[in-house]
What does this fold into?
Amino acid sequence: MVGLAATFGSGAMTNSINDFDDADLFLVTGSNTTAQHPLIGSRIINAVKRGAKLLLIDPREIPLAEFADLHLRQNIGTDVAVLNGIMNIIIEEELYDKEFVETRTEGFEQLKEIVRKYPPHVVEKISGVASRDLKKAANMYAKADKAMLAYAMGITQHTTGVDNVKSCANLAMLTGHLGRPATGVNPLRGQSNVQGACDMGGLPNVYSGYQPVIDAAAKKKFEDAWGVAALDDKVGLTITDMMIAAQKGELKALFVMGENPLMSDPDTSHIEQALSNLDFLVVQDMFLSETAVKADVVLPAASFAEKEGTYTNTERRVQLSGKAISPPGEARPDWRIICELSTLAGYPMNYSSPADIMKEINAVTPSYAGITHERLAGGYGLQWPCPNVEHPGTPVLHKDKFSKGLGTFLPCEFKPVAEMPDEEYDFMLTTGRIYYHYHTGTMTRRISILEREAPEALLEIHPDDAKKMGIRNNDVVEVTSRRGAVRLKAEITKRVPQSVVFSTFHFHEAPINLLTNSAYDPVAKIPEYKGCAVKIRRCV
Amino acid sequence: MTRTRTVCPFCGCGCSFYLLSERDRVTGIEPSPSNPVNKGMLCVKGWNAHEFIHSPERLTKPLIRKHGEQVESTWDEALKLVADRLLDIKKQFGPRALAFLASAKVTNEENYLFMKMARATFGTNNVDHCARL
It folds into this structure.
């Protein structure tokens, strides 16, 4: 999100899910769309069936590959090189949108300067993508009338995540695939309200609506609205830095609402040490998660079915969700718990309902000003920005100008994955999700049909590698990184390239994040889940 | 039978479906036919999103660690303990010794209140969530 905000002035999906029906071409990269966003995946497949083109850039042969007109299987973490290579060809062959570049953007000369260093033969060497295919890809994307670029965590979960995002944005601006229906740069958000949690200021640097905490006017505005004398004027810690601070003993207490960092965060042993080092840990959750087991106090929370409220999906659509049943036992909705706790701590919060809370959000958050429960109850949600109650919402961002005025080309140089395979740790491990499960599995592993389909973690390994090591399907293998070891069954498949293995983080029996590297992007603080060095041995 | 329009709790697509319920029991799911996101369709996770709600493993009472064990407590006791401990730590080490992890799975209203609690009640900008993960 940081990458898009720097380029366009707004870090969210530029277009809408309905646009997937109208695009002429999709560039999908770092997204196993049919598994992680099935309803968007099926739209892409339907569009391809009616004649749209699909350009896939992904090291793995994901299900969408079957429908792709061209599939570039780059070496893991070489995204910047591949995207620069495509832009190099587009500029070289003068396929770029000159009018868009001239009237809507700045920094084109700097872009030219950098991408000049990435001619096809250089990119081929770095990424393993053949020059011929790269040229084909450049032509396909640049010449399409309406091209939608979609990406997910395969782009962001790298130490160069922000550079990867900027490179996607550069490519879309260069070709003018922005600001019109069925185009744009579209990050697919992985959780039901990850967009909303960001929008609401669940971040160390901003209040709701991305109003910076270091901006004196914004701080004053919230001090007045909340009736407090002096809010913290320094940017707080990211989750990554919180764990480091806890380990150092600088952070004493952590309050976790509905998250499971002990399963979801990289380098689990390090997280475990950090949590153990806290004086006080509170977890508010529906289940006794791996993290909740470690807590000093666990507060039982209601599920989505047991409370009212709004969620913001990946296309910025805010939707109202109703209350169907009462929570079990004494479990309570999160908002009620927060109100009571805050009141006990000396800052009274007296809201009668989520609709009542939304009124305050409307008043202090310009992009949500017109999004009221009354309006949502009567329709199918509203897409922000929605500055007043008459406003219909915004399906396409950056139509006539970018949020920040001109879009800025922010060219990047290629940098390899932080921990490359070597003689001892000779495989690259990359991680992701599968179709049947969601995140750390606290919900989906308690659904019998999903458990029946995918009851255990598997390690995808290429047939040639398996043969060399005498590994057969379903053999138990031990995967070891510099941070830990995990045992799981092998699945021999050409979905992964040689020397690469893949697994998921859904299964507590094989917690793959024991292995992953907590090296992170210096700006966005996103860890490099998508690549670390491991060694593999067959267990007998 | 009651039909309640809700939003799927899993990925970021934001599919809409009706929960079918009988008294306090969710019995089934019916995708919203007219919602622009999913247009009457759902994936296998969405179709089965109601099952975990009634899991016997749901937490139904607050737990407090006493002599190393997590034991059931009342809400009053648990909330008082949390408020007191957080205020104590704030007093002793300053507000930056506290941190708050918001959630990509709860509502906007709840995330807003949570960050407001971190900032207004406890005085720290140490608030984040797992958007990066």
Remarks:
- Chain A touches chain B through 144 residues (CB under 8 Å).
- Residues 427-538 of chain A form a domain with the Barwin-like endoglucanases fold (CATH 2.40.40.20).
- Residues 79-92 of chain A form the longest helix (14 residues).
- Chain A is about 30% helix and 20% strand.
